[in-house]
Amino acid sequence: MQITFLGTSSGVPTRSRNVSSVALRLPQRAELWLFDCGEGTQHQILKSELKVSQLSRIFITHMHGDHIFGLMGLLASCGLAGNVDRVDIYGPPGLNDYLQACSRYSHTHFSYPVKVHAVKPGVIYEDDEFSVTCNQLHHRIPAFGYRIAEKDRVGRFDVEKAKAMEIPPGRIYGQLKRGETVTLSDGRVIHGNELCGPTEIGRKIAYCTDTIYCDTAVELAQDADVLIHEATFAHQDSEMAFQRLHSTTTMAAQTALTAGARRLIMTHFSPRYAPGNVVELKDLLREARAIFPKTEMAHDFMNYEVPRRREKELILAKN
Amino acid sequence: MQITFLGTSSGVPTRSRNVSSVALRLPQRAELWLFDCGEGTQHQILKSELKVSQLSRIFITHMHGDHIFGLMGLLASCGLAGNVDRVDIYGPPGLNDYLQACSRYSHTHFSYPVKVHAVKPGVIYEDDEFSVTCNQLHHRIPAFGYRIAEKDRVGRFDVEKAKAMEIPPGRIYGQLKRGETVTLSDGRVIHGNELCGPTEIGRKIAYCTDTIYCDTAVELAQDADVLIHEATFAHQDSEMAFQRLHSTTTMAAQTALTAGARRLIMTHFSPRYAPGNVVELKDLLREARAIFPKTEMAHDFMNYEVPRRREKELILAKN
Ligand SMILES: [Zn+2]
Ligand SMILES: [Zn+2]
């Protein structure tokens, strides 16, 4: 699970930061998922190492322009490139009507299936490996946060050990691989976990934007390996945050802390904190780290590979 | 009149060329006009030396996404920047409904007046200095070409000469400046043109995209100082041009030649001619120049200052 930030500015693009979009790469299945799609997202993908041909799902948090104005262009370009199989889009009610209206007025006909799903709180997508849950945040218009959870996996099956124990290969290996208990024809009882490595704990990512501090963001981020949370404003600009229902750095950090998240990456910064201004982004980072030390600030094209906990624990054990 | 190309690719953006937009600067009145507004136009303006605060008029040729998907983002950002007085938008019927629908779905409220004018063939805008005419081109959907004509101006009034001739200053100067004939109180008859420099011939720009070769493009480009014309395809790909109702290089050049334009700048190139392909953009340029030698190819951020004919003729006279 590799995260690439494609846009980290709130409201308007700047010379160095585009409006919101975050890519999630799932290399094991050659899929690319997008979270939000501000204007110019397709341009950012072009400049990155992401492959638009792998695009399969897009999750939209809310209908503000800086989160959706890149959708039509991206979808149209995917069609012209002719290398996308199907795209599923998840987002607030109204998203489908918006896309239909844009398609109609611009005479855009997608050459591949585009299916729009209106989300409501709960599980909105699930397969063998992943589930995606959403819940409503607290913004000026309906906005949804997302939690992407990888399922736990039984550890790697030790074939050499099974052979050494003279367990006959075939169907029994499959049962043991799944962690089941098997009675062999010679009467021995074998527990799958004897032959499997430690369980691979699924990774969890939460994406919360746009919102002021709210309990649902904490729930979505519970025990997450990484929480991506908006931090539009510095703490001193809390009043604006309350007026516009955006978060300050301290709200983002408090959310990560309360949720027991392992890492916080802040994004969606107001252009007012550009270098040279009274308050700069490094000040925002300091504010958040005072509450939640494992905080980073996103910048455009920043990559973050979500670490596996199992691997992490093995490394810890070695030290 | 300074032209800046902001996007010169057809259909989809590439790493080096954005989708369609052309800026026209009118420095004498600190105004910026835009022609078409593909996705990412506001990003291109940010990277250029253009001032978005000067934006006053936007002319849209047709409703295909690569010509309009940047409009909403640009208009929304102008509002957030809070430095635009008013924007008048001219385009095909449907443009207003499209913008209204996008505004509604994205909860975008412009903080300044945005007025959308549905164009039809004829003069669509006129003031003391400029007139803008449009006419329908020949594309898959209704598309309009534009002609921007600067009005002729009486040459500079020679105050020193007037004084030397002992013409009393005041109201009479104004009449002479306008080129009128005046009878002085002493009986002398003075013709304004005796005291004015050569008439400044207004400059004319034609913008024709998207279209296959058509007579209306020739009319719009009649005697133009510069014709900006699409050239999506190389001559060898004429069949595609006919199918999709786009122009080849040779059609663009033929339009310039037949219209008696002074210069042709081609734009809206298919990404298939990127460097390294069998046919490259330099081949497209060669094709056009074989028919119309004064042809250039646009690239993103290319500037072209439309020369004044009077100045040009003075230069010619000196040589
Ligand atoms: Zn928002
Ligand atoms: Zn078109």
Automatic annotation (TrEMBL), chains A, B:
Belongs to the RNase Z family. Keywords: Endonuclease, Hydrolase, Metal-binding, Nuclease, tRNA processing, Zinc. Its EC number is 3.1.26.11. HAMAP family: RNase_Z_BN. This is Ribonuclease Z. Residues 18-268 form the Metallo-beta-lactamase domain. It comes from Brunnivagina elsteri CCALA 953. The keyword Metal-binding applies. Zn(2+) 1 binds at residues 62, 64, 139, 210. InterPro entries: Metallo-B-lactamas, RibonucZ/Hydroxyglut_hydro, RNase_Z/BN. CDD domains: RNaseZ_ZiPD-like_MBL-fold (cd07717). It catalyses: Endonucleolytic cleavage of RNA, removing extra 3' nucleotides from tRNA precursor, generating 3' termini of tRNAs. A 3'-hydroxy group is left at the tRNA terminus and a 5'-phosphoryl group is left at the trailer molecule. It holds the Pfam family Lactamase_B_2. The active site is at residue 66.
